[in-house]
């Protein structure tokens, strides 16, 4: 079993928990901004394919105490990144949070990047390149007080990007939020659904995907 974390918009955590449990997730625990849960490899694929509410699915790798930037660097170095991806793959670091020592998230991301690159060079391997726009691997670090949680982002560009829109209207609603509104509305597939303020049709599209049991 793997320990996993699904992030979502604040306020949707309980609805996401119900969705994940329906997919077979175990030991679901709601926190602000997401749900911790347990699952096997099959569940990882199912949650990535079928969750309509999760923004991202992450695989936690390590937690470490961070009282200085050196602690952050050392904690990241304790993971053998050469076992996770090869030098010809690109990566990006997404760093969230600050504390008394790491006062800037960009600086935190830089120290994490340095630790990963040095992990390769110290093993006499080529250094991998950073690609902030379209990386092969996304690494998420969340700093909460003096604890840094390091995770692999399994979602790619983000699960709210369904891929069904060529263009958008003004101020489009995010797909995950639209799906949540449809679920909360009490609407039942097979009955009429009216969106009197329809812009780019996100609510109706999400409802249609629910009605036809189509993976998002």
From TrEMBL:
Coiled coil (residue ranges): none
Keyword annotations of the record: Methyltransferase, RNA-binding, Transferase
SMART domains noted in UniProt: THUMP (SM00981)
InterPro entries: RlmKL-like_Mtase (IPR000241), RlmKL-like_Mtase_CS (IPR053943), RlmL_1st (IPR054170), SAM-dependent_MTases_sf (IPR029063), THUMP_dom (IPR004114)
Residue ranges occupied by any THUMP domain in the UniProt entry: 43-154
CDD domains: THUMP_AdoMetMT
GO MF entries: RNA binding; rRNA (guanine-N2-)-methyltransferase activity; rRNA (guanine-N7-)-methyltransferase activity
Gene3D superfamilies (alphabetical): 3.30.2130.30, Vaccinia Virus protein VP39 (3.40.50.150)
Listed Pfam families: RlmL_1st, THUMP, UPF0020
PANTHER family noted in UniProt: RIBOSOMAL RNA LARGE SUBUNIT METHYLTRANSFERASE K/L, RIBOSOMAL RNA LARGE SUBUNIT METHYLTRANSFERASE K_L
Name used for this protein in its record: 23S rRNA (Guanine(2445)-N(2))/(Guanine(2069)-N(7))-methyltransferase
Source species: Enterobacter hormaechei
